[in-house]
Design brief:
3 strands; about 90 residues; alpha+beta; single chain; about 50% helix
Length: about 90
């Protein structure tokens, strides 16, 4: 028996990347910050907190690290533009 292919007019939605944990070496490489500074910033709420992965292992969600980097970049760009506007 032949089955007819069902065509849908709904757009195909690509799933987001699956959540991924970053271990410390990759967090350090992406941020350029030392471990003690990262943990101090996380304790003060200025950096994503690590997540316990079991035992002595911890990691950071890649999406949270990327968002933190984007936020820092945007804030730095706004500050730079603000200073340039005052000079004119």
């Amino acid at each position: 028996m032949k089955t007819a292919a069902i065509q849908s007019n709904t757009p195909t939605i690509k799933p987001e990347r699956p959540a991924r944990f970053l271990r410390w070496p990759e967090v350090q490489e992406r941020t350029g910050l030392c471990r003690s500074h990262v943990h101090d910033m996380a304790r003060r709420g200025n950096f994503p907190s690590p997540i316990n992965l079991g035992g002595r292992a911890s990691g950071w969600l890649e999406s949270e690290i990327e968002a933190w980097i984007e936020e820092r970049t945007a804030n730095a760009r706004e500050a730079t533009q603000g200073r340039e506007g005052r000079r004119a």
